[in-house]
Amino acid sequence: MAKELKQLTKRADNYSQWYNDLVMKADLAEQAPVRGCMIIKPYGYAIWEKMQASLDADFKKVGVQNAYFPLLIPKSFFAREAEHVKGFAKESAVVTHYRLKTSEDGKDIIVDPTAKLEEELIIRPTSETMVWNTYKGWIHSWRDLPILCNQWCNVMRWEMRTRPFLRTSEFLWQEGHTAHATQEEAREMAKKMLNIYADFAENVIAVPVIRGEKSETERFAGAVDTYTIEAMMQDGKALQSGTSHFLGQNFAKSFDVTYLDKDNKPQYVWATSWGVSTRLIGALIMAHSDDNGLVLPPKVAPIQVVIVPIYKDNGQLNAISEKLQPVIEQLREAGVSVKYDDADNKRPGFKFADYELKGVPVRLVMGGRDLESNTIEIMRRDTLEKENVSFDGIVDRVKNLLDDIQKNIFEKARKFRDEHIYECDNYDEFKKRIKDGGFFLCPWDGTAETEAKIKEDTQATIRCIPYGYSQEPGIDMVSGKPSVARVIIARNY
Fold first, then answer.
1. How confident is the model at residue 470 (pLDDT cuts 50, 70, 90)?
2. What is the pLDDT of residue 1?
3. What residue spans of 170-238 are helical by DSSP H?
4. What is the model's pLDDT at position 25?
5. Which 3 state secondary structure label does DSSP give 175?
6. Coil, helix or strand for 373?
């Protein structure tokens, strides 16, 4: 049975299939009856809850408040911002009727043709239009600003090619929408949220990211500037892991949202929006996991420590449980999530394989001999190293080990990422090497034509103009023109 649990496709054989296997077999999610949608199972949702709690606390530290806006958006709202509707038109699901009825023969359920909506409704792909229609009623004076709102919700984007967590027709996310009196304040907010995302990615889910700005072609529909964090997966592909947008006054002008400034003059409001989604669970899986299953950073692991007793009879189980109970209580008091698995319906080997598959960071095992010798076996999931140690001081050892695992998972991913960032000025060389993955730092002339040719030739895109990398002048490897910046180019999910 334990072997059956571990039958994952190996990453080296088929990375995409390995990912799909792991999502299903680790009980994270499964396919839904609706095309492109998924059912997030309790274990997967528990990871999302931990992510949500961490991010929500970070948002509130900078004054953001949670609100909720409707799922359905009048189609006319989309027409008000031309770039926005252009960006989402192909992905929008539309509600046209509000009632069903039985057919005349009573055999079928059909749409009632008399119940057609006067105006069609869009199932939100994102909420800027609804939010800014609402903000028009909230904002009158400079005293009403800033407004810093966020909502946790689901959205619908009718994707053609889907994969659990990475790209689904319906997904969970948070979307922040802020309104400001000045351009400077709005830009500062957009960059502040990007940094919150980057800190979360690196310090909580242990995924190293590159911060930067999107090219004009890759910007969010309706944005003036889009700031992004880009992560590298173990196959060398990029995963856009969070974006923050400076929207300028585009939506304020589209929805006529103005305020009276301190001189009593009307001014258009400045805006931002920003979001991350359950795609982060996909990042977590692909950045860290191995051929044995999930490798979860302790900060988002639903179970941080599992304790498995091995016993020959109930008397021995009671003695082991009595010995372990104070440890369980002390760990829980310290905020560590612990599962004590004394169930007798599964063999220890099956349990070990199952918890390894699910990425539980620390496993403790105590048997009869350990009870007699005052020892306990401890195993760390990230390296699969295990040892027998003294039972005395085990609580502090576990807490320190969790911290070490968190750091080690991040450092391993960072080392991999850094070893796969390459400077490249030669297009022929680039076209050969991009097939094997990696982030390529290349000079770019700033034109959409060059960007389109790279995508057509290699299926790679400009992920961002990165921060923290040299931007010395160079020559574009495609056009031969002077470059405006070095950009990160990669294939992506």
1. confident
2. 39
3. 183-203
4. 97
5. strand
6. helix
pLDDT digits (tens, 9 = 90+) for 326-351: 999 999 999 999 999 999 999 999 99
Length of the chain: 493
Backbone angles phi, psi at 83, to 5 degrees: -65, -35
Could you tell me the CA-to-CA distances from 250 to 46, 165, 275, 415, 481 in Å, in that order? 38, 31, 18, 41, 32
Q: Is the pTM above the cut of 0.85?
A: yes
CA distance linking residue 75 with residue 94, whole number of Å: 8
- Which tokens in the block code for residue 133? 């229609």
Query: 10 Å Cβ neighbour count for 453?
Result: 14
Angle separating helix axes 394-419 and 279-288, nearest 10 degrees: 90
With left for phi above 0 and alpha for psi between -120 and 50, is residue 111 left, alpha or beta? Answer: beta
Mean pLDDT value of segment 389-409 = 98
Q: Measure Cα distances from 200 to 114, 194, 267, 383, 427 in Å.
A: 50, 10, 35, 23, 35
Give the C-alpha separation, 112 to 457, whole Å. 49
Contact indicator for 411, 287 with CB cutoff of 8 Å: no
- Dist CA 427 CA 442 (whole Å): 9
492 vs 4, residue with greater confidence? 492
Amino acid 6: pLDDT: 57
Q: Residue 73, SS3?
A: strand
Label residue 71 by pLDDT band (50, 70, 90): very high
The tokens describing 249, both together, are 């006054």
Query: How does the average pLDDT of the chain come out, rounded?
Result: 96
Helices (H) and strands (E) in the chain, counts: 15, 25
Handedness of CA 74, 79, 83, 86 (dihedral sign): positive
Encode pLDDT of 74-91 as tens digits: 999 988 887 887 888 899
Buried b (16+ CB within 10 A) or exposed e, 194-210: bebbbebbbebbbbbbb
If 0-12 CB within 10 Å is exposed, 13-18 middle and 19+ buried, where does residue 317 land? middle
Beta-carbon contacts of residue 218 (< 8 Å; ≥ 6 apart) = 226, 461, 462, 463, 464
Q: Is 122 in contact with 129 (CB distance < 8 Å)?
A: no
3-state SS assignment for residue 202: helix
